[in-house]
Amino acid sequence: MIDDYLVELEIRNYSPNTIKTYNSIINNFYKFLQNEEKLFDDRQFLRIFKRYIQHLKRDKEVTQNYIYLVTVVVKKFLEFNHIYFLDEISAPKRTKSLPKSLNEKEVQDLIEAVTYNPESDNENQKIIKSRDKLILTLLYSSGLRVSELVNLIVKDIDFEERTILIRGKGDKDRVVLFDKNAKLLILEYLNLRKTDSKHLFTNRRGNPLTPRYVQLMIKKYGEKAGITKKVTPHVLRHSYATHLLKNGVDIRVIQQLLGHSSLSTTQIYTSVDMDTIKSVYDQAKTH
């Protein structure tokens, strides 16, 4: 049943990380069930699931958001197999935390931390640094998810319009923009690299980069730039959205650029930049 469900997630174009998370959650619950009664009806199963949730809270000390995820994933898995034991269970509310973001200077320092030294760096190092600088620039200037970034295809880049076609979550296409500086960096990197791979970002062997590589690379340059905040691909995505909002871009435009299916997901950014809110408020009060 688990294998069939994971195959279905692949068919639905779920990301590898999401599938890995779902697999872990379902298998952990399955292991818990093996220590329970072998036969159960709806009500018995309901009691067992509630005991499992209490076990996670008490013994594993997991967050409220993880409890929410476990409830949703297990229900989806059972419903896929036409089992409706948990119909009475509703997912607990998630706790909403404000997205972390960098300020404009921190973003600039991060990108400028990628420096090429012609006296000590060889040709391969020049290619790698050209690629890494482009990755940081694109994550910030286009608001890409890291899963989208590592899957970028060269032919999907329109240099004339400065757009990239993105295959986003749920098999939904969208178009993102990149600025003139990013355009120059893309052209420079394509001219330097030694592969004709269809993927934009590759390693020395010509294989696509992994999200893990990108995460570690960004962490390294964040430390080099002296940034004390946690720096991740998602933080750069948050920074992109926050700075757009601060500069007066309509939230529905930001929603489209980020690829959010629901405006409520994007609206969390309206809570981020209090300086902008105060400025708008003060201007309104003076008229």
Count of extended strands: 3
* CATH secondary-structure class of the largest domain: Mainly Alpha
Tell me, rounded to a whole number, the average pLDDT. 87
Give the strand content. Answer: under 5%
Number of helices: 13
N/C terminus separation: 64 Å
Shape: globular
Which residue ranges are poorly predicted, with pLDDT under 50 across at least 5 consecutive positions?
Answer: none
Order of helices and strands: HHHHHHHEEEHHHHHH
User: What CATH architecture of the largest domain would you give?
Assistant: Orthogonal Bundle
Helicity range of the residues?
A: 55-70%
CATH superfamily of the largest domain: Intergrase catalytic core
What is the CATH third-level topology name of the largest domain?
hpI Integrase, Chain A
Query: Structural class, from helix and strand content?
Result: mainly alpha
Integer tally of domains: 2
Main β sheet profile: 3 strands, antiparallel
Task: Describe it.
- The protein is mainly alpha-helical and 287 residues long.
- It has 2 domains: 79 residues, DNA polymerase, domain 1 (Orthogonal Bundle), CATH 1.10.150; 173 residues, Intergrase catalytic core (hpI Integrase, Chain A, Orthogonal Bundle), CATH 1.10.443.
- The protein contains 13 helices and 3 strands, in the order αααααααβββαααααα.
- It has a 3-stranded antiparallel beta sheet.
- Strand 2 and strand 3 form a beta hairpin.
- Helix 1 packs antiparallel against helix 2, helix 5 packs antiparallel against helix 6 and helix 6 packs antiparallel against helix 8.
- The longest helix has 20 residues.
